[in-house]
Amino acid sequence: MRSFTCRPVGIGSRSPRKGGTGAARPREAGALHPVPACLALALAVALATAVAPETHAASPDPIVLRNFELQDQSGHTHHTEFPRSRPLLLVVGDRQGVETVESWIPTLKQHWGDRADIVGVAALRGIPRMFQSRIAESVRRTQPRPVLLDFDGTVTGQLEYTRRQANVYIVDAQGRLRAHVSGPPTAEAIGVLHAAFNAASAVPAPSTDSTPASPAPPQAPPR
Predict the structure, then answer these.
(1) Higher local confidence (pLDDT), 218 or 201
(2) How many whole angstroms separate alpha carbon 33 and alpha carbon 138?
């Protein structure tokens, strides 16, 4: 690996020329102190990658999730189908977003635990098959509740999500995506989810009664 030296870069000053007397030319009045170029670059990267909660505008053509089935860290298969009896809360995170996913769980249970199904999904697309069992074992040791392991993009391939953060989605009973927030559980993000959940709950749940109505009895002809 190539190495480099962090050299100070000044503004309004010049370095002494090679082959000269060796004495540096005095800096002009008002010249700025030299700033290491690599330090300036590091600060710029830090500012650009600062984590902040995000809300994502709904698409004019809402995403409709397809039915899916995934295994959790213990090898149990979970089936998710639409339409369903109540809304679905999906919590998605990659390996770097696990901590923020955990911070969302108590909030989601407090607000919607008795009115929606909460499903956690680990975004693991691209993990070679030879390492997948080790990933499952690691999740099994650290996560007591079921987490669906999405190695093939079965769910995450249908959604847009922010890497290195928790992503929370509200999906109505018909499978339509109603809201997506990412980042920590701030008051703003929770407010967005509340509004979307109320809209999703207004969608009538599909009827589970498939028994056809009995025909009306024939009426006697008038005498």
Answers:
(1) 201
(2) 50
